Amino acid sequence: MKDAHDMTGQIEREGTMSKISIRASAVTVARRGGRRFLPSRRPIPHNSGLPLSSEAVTGRPADAVTDPFRKDMPMTDAAARAEGVTKVYGWGDTRVTALDQVTVSFHRGEFTAVMGPSGSGKSTLMHCMAGLDEVTEGAVFIGDQNLSTLSDRRLTKLRRERVGFIFQTFNLVPTLTAKENITLPLDLAGRKENGEWFTRLVETLGIADRLSHRPKEMSGGQQQRVAAARALFSRPDLIFADEPTGNLDSTASAELLEFLQNAVKEHGQTIVMVTHDPVAASYSDRIVFLADGRVVDTMGDPTPARVLDRIKELEG
Ligand code: ADP
Ligand code: MG
């Protein structure tokens, strides 16, 4: 079991492994930036003669952040949110600002699509939101939990219990079969598997006849569906999916998207899905558009035609 544990540790760290170079400095800055948003733990002075600040009264900073595209909903009710998140890779000539002051909220029981040109920061946003990568500045919350305040162990636990991630590059464990890959996170968490749910999942995703195959014995589309099944099997509150239909034909794609839509409608899960495809995006409740590491627009109740028009407008 130890071997499998190490491998899942590797899966969970994948997002950071390739980006490990500036990790140490990012941690320091992220912790400093993150603390600004924590409720004040300072005791409220009695009889100091001064009026209480709103921070002392509400536990929130006076300049509590709001989602600029979501003024109707309190950001603190979100299933996950980013507050002023900047992510910088590299330094000097190779310095890249992948996310630039992103403030965005993803609400409970909502299916959000994230769209934007290649290199606009979509994968970086997913990795930072899921706690797979450290932010350079700002704070990421899952529920009420500021991720930068957690130890690695508590962050791993929170991710394992509440977050499912479908990686753009699948990140399956090569030595395990499809079935073992799918059940690995639950096995590691010591949670009991639900056989009926497993059968429904693999049948709906069309991989029931591939369960004893190892990743290299499967097509890209099959591996992508195994990766989706792995993320969905524990029924996490929050699912991040990075182009989960990128390798699927239109039928398999529609099946996965309907499944995701159902997870939101019937089980109240929250899904954030990166996609390039206007048809895939039209399954969502809301689209967040990124460009150059910033949120530039949002769209409610999308249809493929409206999405295409908006992309054309944004590309100007
Ligand atoms: P998208 O998913 O929208 O295509 P990414 O989030 O992958 O965009 O990348 C955003 C920007 O950050 C790009 O300019 C990309 O080259 C850069 N980037 C992403 N990951 C790294 C990394 N590990 N090291 C250096 N630059 C990176
Ligand atoms: Mg990407």
Explain what this protein looks like in three dimensions.
It is built from 11 helices and 10 strands. The chain is of the alpha/beta class. The protein has a single domain, classed as P-loop containing nucleotide triphosphate hydrolases (Rossmann fold). The strands form 2 sheets. It has a 6-stranded mixed beta sheet with strand order 6-7-8-3-9-10. A hairpin with a 6-residue loop joins strand 1 and strand 2 (96-106). It binds adenosine-5'-diphosphate and magnesium ion. The site of magnesium ion (MG) has 4 residues, from helix 4.
Rg from alpha-carbon coordinates:
20 Å
Counting DSSP H or I runs of 4 or more residues, the number of helices is 11
Percentage of residues in helical conformation: 25-40%
Question: What are the secondary-structure elements, in order, as H or E?
Answer: HHHEEEHEEHEHHHEHEHEEH
The CATH superfamily is P-loop containing nucleotide triphosphate hydrolases
Looking at the overall shape, the CATH architecture is 3-Layer(aba) Sandwich
